[in-house]
Amino acid sequence: MVGVRFKVVDLCKKDAMSVVPQDVIRYDLERCAEILRSEGFDVKGPGVMVRASRDGTEITLYRNGRMMMNPAENKEKVRELAENLYALMEAARELP
């Protein structure tokens, strides 16, 4: 079980979804970028966000843990990817 509770939200854009943490969390975006690169993602940033892509999916990650994914086929696939990403980035999570 992942330590981040979240919900998946449809966006106005037909093929994109947002992943929204249900608790207050923060990530070190520089560390997130390093982790994602080490996992084979093409990473741009960090700045105010990290953009990463792999296997045709682009993920935008913000410091507060919110993510946007495009394209997003369905909520279940987005949920699965989000769980995997949150688990990967646990080492970049900042303490409150």
Describe this entry's structure for a reader.
There is one protein chain. Strands 1-2-6-5-4-3 form a six-stranded antiparallel sheet, with helices on one face. The longest helix is centred in the last third of the chain and has 14 residues, at 75-88. It has two helices and six strands; from the N terminus they run ββαββββα. The model has no long low-confidence stretch (mean pLDDT 88). It has 96 residues and is of the alpha+beta class. The chain has a single domain (6-92), classed as TATA-Binding Protein (2-Layer Sandwich).
Query: Order of strands across the biggest sheet?
Result: 1-2-6-5-4-3
Q: Report the total helices.
A: 2
Major β-sheet profile = 6 strands, antiparallel
Kindly provide the radius of gyration, computed on alpha-carbon positions and rounded to a whole number of angstroms: 12 Å
How many discrete structural domains? Answer: 1
In CATH, what is the homologous superfamily? TATA-Binding Protein
Query: What is the subunit organization of this protein?
Result: single chain
- The fraction of residues in strands falls at 25-35%
CATH class: Alpha Beta
Q: How far from one another are the termini?
A: 21 Å
SSE topology string: EEHEEEEH
Instruction: Find the CATH topology.
Output: TATA-Binding Protein
Poorly predicted runs are none
Give the beta-strand count.
Answer: 6
